[in-house]
Amino acid sequence: MKYVYMLLMVLGTVIPWYYFSQALFVEGLSFSEFVAAWSATNSAAGVLADLSITGLAAVIFAVVDAQRNNIKRWWLMIPAIFLVGFSLAIPLYLFLRESQMEARK
Question: What is the reported pTM?
């Protein structure tokens, strides 16, 4: 499973950043316009709300799970959220968790 999580980390970084870079180059390098586009329509706002709630649940789970299972470097998912998004952060945490579980065996 560790390799599946690695693949998802790569895809979860490359695919979103492809679209982010396209938006930035088409609409210009205005971060405020980039953020404003997240809620430009009701559909976009709904997706943003869905991802935000899901991401918050994932972070809460990771914090509790990391303490219970002594997962090292779990905190790396926090900068991953802000640098890429949950598409990197969640597979990253699962990769770290799986690696820790393998090391215990």
Answer: 0.85
